[in-house]
Amino acid sequence: MKSLRSLPLVLFAAFALQDCATPMVAEPTAPVAAALPAARHVELPVAGRTVDVSVFDAVGQPAAVIFLSHGAGSSPERLMPLIGKLQRAGLTVLAPLHADSLLIAEAERQDLQTAFMSRMAELQAVSAYAQQQYPELPLGGLGHSYGSLIALMGGGALDSMLHARVPAMKAVAMFSSPGPIPGLTATPGALDMVAVPTLTITGPKDVAQPFASDPAVQIAQFDALPAGDNTLLVVDGSSHAFVYGEEGGYDDAIGLVTDFLLSRVAGNAGATRRFDDARSSDWIEIRRR
What's the DSSP call for residue 35? Predict the structure, then answer.
């Protein structure tokens, strides 16, 4: 991998559940959802440091394992609404606490420029761990903002420059691109080697400084992907914080996300039918290319 230490720090500026005489027939009640397995923690040695990886086991028999990369300064805990839905869909999630997270002590926390290299190393280490621990399960990628770039690199983005592709990664879903970063994603051909199906989730208020200051850049990135199995969800009214589960249309969008992952990663036929047959609604515009 080429060193990116020479790139300006601004390139990585930050982008937040009676006893009765006559027997009575009980009214039917809604089924109680199975309790979500609590996170387990694995410490992985990565590039001279130890990385905490939260392991969120699927409810029931897992269909696939998903590498999940959080946004700049964030953490897996901030993504629990999303993670819980993935678990209930039968997906096991591996989520590293990246070195730029605000949960890391300031003295040990990396700035976003330095953390770029760390994140690439964590992508490789966690993906290798997934294949070692779950050899029978297919691997997918999922990210938010800064993390969406890391996940997409697993699918081949920037591979001509940085060679970070994870061959085992079968598909990638992305909430909110960090935007066209000079020297990286803004480089012509930066996405030409993406070799897996992708799903992009964005909205008309999806902005993050300094490079995603216009929601149009999200769609521009979608349009820059190689023609193939790419889908874009434009969720009405949604912002860069949509992934956190506090905005309208979230459940509908996550239903499509889980169907995409179950289909393109796990090969689930029912999920494939649902995802491929899905059409735009009042909440969500669906584009495919």
Answer: P
pLDDT digits (tens, 9 = 90+) for 47-98: 889 999 999 999 999 999 999 999 999 999 999 999 999 999 999 999 999 9
Nearest C-alpha neighbor of 285 from the set 242, 256, 247, 246 = 256
Which stretches does DSSP call E strand in 129-255?
A: 139-144, 169-175, 198-202, 230-235
Instruction: In whole angstroms, give the CA distance from residue 154 to residue 140.
Output: 9
Cβ contact 151:122 at 8 Å: no
By the 8 A CB rule, do 65 and 170 touch? no
- Overall residue count recorded for the chain in this entry: 289
- Which residues have C-beta within 8 Å of that of residue 145, sequence separation ≥ 6? 15, 71, 72, 74, 175, 176, 177, 178, 208, 240
The one-letter amino acid code at 262 reads L
Residues in the chain where the model's pLDDT stays below 70: 1-34
pLDDT for the residue 118: 97
Which residues neighbour 253 within 8 Å (Cβ) at sequence distance 6 or greater? 201, 233, 235, 238, 242, 283, 284
**Nearest alpha-carbon partner for 199 in 120, 94, 278:** 278
pLDDT at 17: 28
Beta carbons within 10 angstroms of residue 19's beta carbon: 3
136-155 pLDDT, tens per residue? 999 999 999 999 999 999 99
Q: Can you give the pLDDT at residue 239?
A: 96
pLDDT given at position 33: 60
Give me the helices (H) in the chain, please.
Answer: 80-88, 112-133, 146-154, 159-162, 216-224, 250-264, 269-277
Tokens 């249309």 correspond to what residue?
249
* Predicted pLDDT at 181: 86
Is there a contact between 253 and 232 (Cβ–Cβ < 8 Å)?
A: no
